[in-house]
Amino acid sequence: MKQTKAFLLTYCVAVFCLSLWNGSIVYAQKTPELENEANIFSRVISPTPPESVQFCDENYDLSRYDAREHMEREMLSFCYMHSTTLQIIKKANRYFPIIIPILKEEGIPEDFKYLMVIESSLNTKAYSRAGAAGLWQLMPTTGRELGLEVNANIDERYNIYKSTKAACKYLKKRYSKFNNWGLVAQSYNAGEAGIAKQISRQHSTDPLDLYLNSETSRYFFRILACKYLFKKPSAMGFYLSSSQLYPPLKYTTKTITYPISDLAKWAQQNGTTYSLLKQANPWLRQTSLQNRTRRTYILKIPTKSSMYYTPSDTRAYDTNWVIGKNK
To answer: Which DSSP state fits 317?
Structure first.
C-alpha cells in the first residue's frame, strides 16, 4: 500500500513538472521577446581569433591553422573562466598604473604586463606549489640573484615595486641572449637553457614555430590572448562599467630603520590595523619586522579616503575596458 502511494505521488509530481515545462515552452513560443531574453543567459559563443596580433611591436600571423587554434583555446579559457577574468580586469585598474611606469622606466616593452597577468592573475599574494611568489612569480633563488631579500621574515617578491624592477632586470638579461621579446617571454616559462636548446635543435627563432612542451606552447598564446582581452573586453563578452573596477589605493609611508617587535601594536599606533598593514605590505611575512642589520624599509599605510572609496568616482585606466557613459 505504501509503495503504491509513493508511486502515485511520484507520478503526480512528474506530470505536474512536465506540464509546467511544456507550458513554459508554449509561453516562450508565444512571446518571442521573452524567448530572446532567455537565450541571452543560455547562449554559449566562440570568440573569433584575430588574423594577427602584435607583441612588443612584432607582428604575429595567426592565420595558420595551428596558431589560430592555439590562440582560440586561450581566448576560450579567458571567456569561460568568468570570475577570474572579471577580477583581473578589475584589478588591472589598480595595478597597471603602478606597473606600467616601472616597465617604461626600465626599458621593458609595456606588453610584458600581460605576462605578469597570466603569471599571477594580479594576485599580489600569489604562491605556486613550486615556490614561486608574487605578481611576477619569482622563485626564491631567482629573487635573491636579482637583489631581493627573501627569507622567513621578509620576502620582497611580494613587494610590487621591487619585484617589478627585479623582473625587468631578469627580462633585460634574457633579451641580451635572444634578441627577441617573444622568445624572452617563452623563456620566462621554460627557462633560458630550455629555449636555447630548442632553438638549436629546431633551427628556428620564431616563437610560433618552436615545438615545445604543452605548458610552454600555451604560454605565449595565453599572453597574446590576454592582450586581446584587454584591448576590448566586451569583444570577448565582458561588459563592465567604470564603477565596477577597483580604484587605485592611496598610501602614506613610514621609513623604518629599526626592528618592530609587534607589527599589530605598531599598526594601531600609526592609525591603521594589522590586517590593513599586511594587505598594503604583503612582503612582511611574520608578526614582527626583525631588521637585525638596520636596513631601510618603506611601510605603506592606506589613507582613510582610499579605504572608503565611492564606486561612482572610479575612472577606468583604459576606457576600452568599460562600456557606458561613465568612463
So the answer is: S
Kindly report the length of the chain: 327
Q: Which three cell numbers stand for residue 310?
A: 565611492
Under 8 Å between Cβ of 297 and 291: yes
Nearest Cα to Cα of residue 291 among 250, 263, 325: 263
Type of residue found at 292: R
Q: Nearest Cα to 161, choosing from 105, 110, 114, 112? A: 105
- Rounded Cα gap, residues 266 and 245, in angstroms: 32
Residue type, 147: G
pLDDT of 14: 46
Convert the pLDDT of each residue in 108-148 to its tens digit. Answer: 999 999 999 999 999 999 999 999 999 999 999 999 999 99
Element (H, E) at 251: strand 251-256
Residue 34 has pLDDT above 50, yes or no: no
Q: Kindly list the distances between the CA atom of residue 243 and the CA atoms of 10, 150, 307, 312, in Å, as whole numbers in the listed order.
A: 49, 37, 15, 5
Instruction: Output the pLDDT for position 282.
Output: 98
Structure letter (DSSP) for residue 22: H
Q: The pTM is what?
A: 0.85
Burial of 186 (0-12, 13-18, 19+ CB in 10 A): buried
Set of cell numbers at residue 84: 577570474
Task: Give the count of alpha carbons within 13 A of 127, CB side only.
Answer: 9
Q: Are 61 and 78 in contact (CB under 8 A)?
A: no
Grid cell 570570475 is found at: 83
